[in-house]
Known about the structure:
The protein is mainly α. It is 73% helix and 0% strand. It has helices at residues 2-10, 19-60, 68-129, 138-142, 157-185, 194-211, 223-249, 254-286, 292-307, 328-350, 371-387, 393-420, 425-429, 438-462, 466-470, 474-507, 519-522, 526-533, 545-564, 567-590, 597-612, 621-639, 642-653, 657-670, 677-684, 688-696. Helix 16 (474-507) runs antiparallel to helix 19, helix 20 runs parallel beside helix 22 and helix 23 packs antiparallel against helix 24. The N and C termini lie far apart (103 Å).
Amino acid sequence: AVRRAVVALGTADDDEPSANDARAASTERDDAATLSRAASAARALAATANALAVADDVAGSVSELEDEDGAMAKLERASASAASAAETFRTLASEDGARARAMIGERGQLTCDAVRDAAWGGLRARLAASGWPPGLRPTELRAYGWSLARDGSEDDDADAALGELRAVRAFHVLRTTSEARAAFAGEASFAHDDVALAFVEDLAEALRVTFATRGSLSDPRKPERLFACAKELTIKTPMLVRAELDRAVFVDEPKIAVATTRHYLSLLLHAVSDVIRTHVCVACAASEEPWWLHVADECRAFDDHVSRNPYADVEETPKVLDALVCEQAHAEAWLDAECEHARVRASKSWNEAKNWAASAEDGDVEYKAPYVAQVVVEETKNAFESAKGLSRADWRLYFVNRVAIPVLDEFIDECECRAVGSKGLGSLVAATGSWRSGTEGTAVIGAAVNASTFVARALRVLAEDTFVLEFGGEKCLETYASKFEKFTARWIDAVADAAASQFTDKVLGDAYVGSTHLQAYETLGDEDARDASDDGSSRNVSASGYMLAALAPLRDRVDDARAAFGVAAFEKCWRAIASKTTRVIVDRIVCVATFSRAGAKQLERDRDAHANVFVECAKRPSALRAKTKTLAECVSALSCDGPTARELIEALRSDGMKGLAVVNARKSSLDVTALDDASLLRVLRRRRDVVDGDAVA
Length: 697
């Protein structure tokens, strides 16, 4: 295939090639390119393998019996070979990363570990001789000073300088192998920084022995002892490490010194987390009276302290609080304790009736805020703030779902129970026979609606916070905001339904039997209409008696709603009441009675009286007109002159385009937009002149 590709690339036919020859030549060129890439990859793999073999051989040849300088020279050659292999590996990985890492990446990491292990013992001894790690008592830490140049086993400055030089060479070997290992692993992480690890390894063991065994400071119920020591370590030791790295190790590379110091801080925090995870959490989970909340508070306080450290990095520095969620059983036990704590604090507020009432100064605000709602919102915010203490987005969501969501669910249930109970919906249902008995029900439901409204708005606002958006918590908040909004809408509508039902009972009631309430629209003669149209001597200028009997209690229901709801909720409520009671008048009077001209005038006065109940509620007259427009259009249809009414009826009964044009023209002249054609025809047929005309016909 290669030979054919070379011939295809190097020769040209004098004759114009055919289409088949062109396709064949293209295929051969592709084959040649593929083989070339494969050969290049094979050469890179071979070079990487050879370099790693050299590094393995050199690192393996180091003997404990040879002198320190000779061993260090071998380790420097081994680390250089590993670095060369890593450089070749990077080129290979960019071409065929998955296969290359599978073939040689693991071997490269093992080689780097071998070089590190060979250099490890001597460096740890050198660090120990220089006084590292520090003692863990706070008094010792505050007075601690350290330098690589100090060596307690040496008698003169020359030997101390030689010891420092050997330590520096070992650090450079570790630095080189760390970078190579990161390349072979395919990730850049502080976990691959062997220079930082050299400082932390013995220190981590000292922390474990002191705070996670049976010593005097290892009581798992008192993690504050560990954190007091860890705080001193994070304050004191990073500065000492950075100073020595700048002075002796990475003299001309300050960025590497800073990065290594940051990695040192991260590894130190991992050591602290290990003590919490393996000692404190285990003991807490095994106890009959666990102290999860105390442990979590101490972890958060320590993480907050570390966040202000100049070497802390928001993205890289680990959080000790994560130790509580590393094990599933520990995470569930801790979050159950957090949830119970939040639930108890919230439920204490909603078990007292006085906490559901809005304060006196909230009387005119748009959204009333009962104390119970404020407590629930505060607990929800606390849960989200606490979740922010975890480093991973999925852990934060898990925290929110286990702590905040159960509280919100329980509060929705509590609002539902109060609204459905005997003092809520029960009071409204019992109000059929007594107008005043509905006041308490409206107040109880109003309190639940106000609380639900306040919580929904607060959740919407919280969902827009940056820290919530960072881990996707806004979806959860928006879901529950919608649930509270649906609850609010449903119970506002329930109050409006109750008012409309009571209005129906009162405006009709027993008087509906025999349609006696319709006589006001049917028995007035045309002479009464003429008198009623005379502004100077009107004989009947008030609403009908049945309407007046119902409107005063309806006004009480509206006043009850105004007192119970915040402005926004009341706006929705009065509109619903106006719309529903308008429909009652249309369905139970307009579409049942037979209207003389005077009866239509009486209906207009009844409509005005009904609208006056809501005049003070409407911020804009257009809002009130929109909710009562159906009744206004009925009055317009009943009041128009006879020829117009008959023409419109005839057009509505016809199917042609001409009839449609007449309907549209007449509806426009009468300002009829809310009534559909069938409803308009039904209303027009309630006119006495139409009924009489049909009878004659």
